[in-house]
């Protein structure tokens, strides 16, 4: 198999993936109204079940144009050569996974149109992967205050590097949305990622890195709450030093094989992100330990708990009240706990047709923070992968072959704010 031959099926993937992606597919068109009504009701002590409405024209178009993906899958199968080089087989497997995930998006769209949450749950698991029992057990242990040796062993090797005075000073700073975007642009420039753009957008609820736009983007939500410089340092470590670096290195490697940039970026964007998210959470924990001396950056267990409850048949109201109660028991005030409960439950049930009875539906994607964190630490303990500096992810073979150009990892956040 020659890599150049992949251009045709990957062009079909690029055409579909650039228009139809999970965030747009599963975001209700009435999200803001339902959220505001739910928050108001929850503050009066009633945890309700929102009624989500989705963009049916968008869903239908995603399905209507799925034929090009099925044809691309057939073309890809015909191209496979078991005698090809190892690097080519890796790229073929990446292409197979990428097209398979995009086809899963079409199946999700079809299930959403039919309001079939059972079929939707199956397609979502194909896209995001399953939730394993060992992870569920660990999540409940963390909630009970027992993190075990895993996190302690990782954090014990990181020094609290600033004074209490500096910690307090940094935590009292206020960074606006526009200023946060400016800091991220500076980080992109320092790391020399010339094709990456940082923009403020109303379409996102959290800082999001995506390679699916014509020029890869980091989107900062328009409604992002003011943060402090410690959080900015955390976001630089998470989004720039891990996600953007991972994407950029892997895209570069594929370009060396002859794939044009626009095809390479889509191929990279449609791979499993579990380990990448794990490395990013390791970075969060590291930055927080350096600046605050705490484990605040470690992944929390509540996405996993919410997914577990949803798969057991709990409604939106039941899941959100459970998460709210756990948050309050952790010492947070009720307003914070209500906002947090909405965020967690919404992310797990978005795309669901009937939030009163979701038929065991759950989006399992957000399990990746905790699962990836565990995997990353275990890889680090075994000597595989220096997660403090570079995310190996699923491109380890390409890196081992010397095909990925190493970008500098100087932890610019550490020198940016303490001069």
Q: Mind explaining what this structure looks like?
A:
The chain has about 425 residues and is mostly helical. It has a domain at about 130-315 and about 360-419. The protein has 20 helices and three strands. It has a three-stranded mixed β-sheet with strand order 1-3-2, covered by helices on one side. A hairpin with a 6-residue loop joins strand 2 (about 210) and strand 3 (about 215-220).
Tally of contiguous helical segments: 20
Profile the largest sheet: 3 strands, mixed
The unreliable regions are: 384-419
Cα-to-Cα separation, first versus last residue: 53 Å
Category from helices, strands and their pairing: mainly alpha
Which strands sit side by side, in order, in the main sheet? 1-3-2
Secondary-structure element series: HHHHHHHHHHHEEEHHHHHHHHH
Report mean pLDDT, rounded to a whole number: 86
Radius of gyration: 21 Å
Give the DSSP E fraction (strand runs of 2 or more residues): under 5%
How helix-rich are the residues, as a percent range? 55-70%
Shape: globular
Number of strands: 3
């Amino acid at each position: 198999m020659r890599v150049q031959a992949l251009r045709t099926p990957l062009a079909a993937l690029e055409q579909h993936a650039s228009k139809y992606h999970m965030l747009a597919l599963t975001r209700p068109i009435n999200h803001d109204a339902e959220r505001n009504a739910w928050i108001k009701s929850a503050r009066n002590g009633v945890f309700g079940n929102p009624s989500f409405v989705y963009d049916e024209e968008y869903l239908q178009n995603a399905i209507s144009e799925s034929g090009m993906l099925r044809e691309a899958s057939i073309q890809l199968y015909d191209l496979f050569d078991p005698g090809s080089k190892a690097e080519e087989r890796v790229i073929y497997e990446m292409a197979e996974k990428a097209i398979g995930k995009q086809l899963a998006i079409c199946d999700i769209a079809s299930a959403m149109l039919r309001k079939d949450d059972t079929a939707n749950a199956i397609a979502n698991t194909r896209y995001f992967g399953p939730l394993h029992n060992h992870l569920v057990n660990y999540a409940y242990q963390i909630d009970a205050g027992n993190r075990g040796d895993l996190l302690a062993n990782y954090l014990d090797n990181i020094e609290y590097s600033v004074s209490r005075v500096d910690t307090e000073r940094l935590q009292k700073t206020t960074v606006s949305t526009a200023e946060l975007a400016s800091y991220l642009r500076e980080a992109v420039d320092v790391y020399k990622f010339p094709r990456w753009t940082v923009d403020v957008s109303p379409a996102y609820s959290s800082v999001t890195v995506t390679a699916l736009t014509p020029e890869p983007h980091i989107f900062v939500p328009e409604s992002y709450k003011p943060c402090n410089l410690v959080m900015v340092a955390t976001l630089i470590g998470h989004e720039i030093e891990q996600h953007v670096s991972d994407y950029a290195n892997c895209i570069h490697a594929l370009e060396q094989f002859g794939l044009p940039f626009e095809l390479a970026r889509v191929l990279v964007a449609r791979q499993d992100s579990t380990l990448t998210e794990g490395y990013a959470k390791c970075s969060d924990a590291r930055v927080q330990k350096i600046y605050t001396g705490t484990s605040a950056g470690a992944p929390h267990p509540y996405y996993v708990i919410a997914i577990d409850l949803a798969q057991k048949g709990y409604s939106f109201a039941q899941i959100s009240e459970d998460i709210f109660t756990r948050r309050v028991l952790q010492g947070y005030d009720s307003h914070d706990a209500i906002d947090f409960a909405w965020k967690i439950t919404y992310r797990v049930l978005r795309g669901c047709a009937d939030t009163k009875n979701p038929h065991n539906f759950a989006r399992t994607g957000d399990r990746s923070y905790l699962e990836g964190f565990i995997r990353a630490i275990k890889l680090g303990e075994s000597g595989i992968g220096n997660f403090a500096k570079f995310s190996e992810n699923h491109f380890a073979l390409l890196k081992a072959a010397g095909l990925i150009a190493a970008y500098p990892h100087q932890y610019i956040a550490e020198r940016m704010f303490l001069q």
